[in-house]
Queue: 2 jobs
Job 1
Amino acid sequence: MATDKIKVAVRVRPFNRRELELGTQCVVEMTGQQTILQHPITMDKIDRLAHTRIQSNPKHVL
């Protein structure tokens, strides 16, 4: 059990028109090699994931 590892993949897509109109906030923050998940209501940081790989498609950058 001590050698078990869990890998988590998080994919963030651009907001659609409706989400933008509603003022939706993204709950995933990617900084360097870290991904931070925030509580959707309070925006408190609830979890940090290491080894972030940021990959973006220029077509989807707003």
Note: Residues 17-21 form the longest helix (5 residues).
Job 2
Amino acid sequence: MAKRRMTRRVLMTQEKTAYWSHILSDLDYHHGGPKNIRDVYEGYRSISKQDISQTIGRYFTDLNRWQFIVASEVV
């Protein structure tokens, strides 16, 4: 289900003019072109749960942990 949502979100985002304006200007800056984004859709679809877990595990360790403290404004 999450993979379907992500796929739908990618497709909907790619339909927007702002997406292409940003991507193409970024590619122009880095001397790329439309051929560099041809396989973006398949790239997103190829990401697995294990890939995400491994990546998160690599960056979020006990030494590199985030802590959020939330306090109510109303006392």
Note: The chain is about 55% helix and 0% strand.
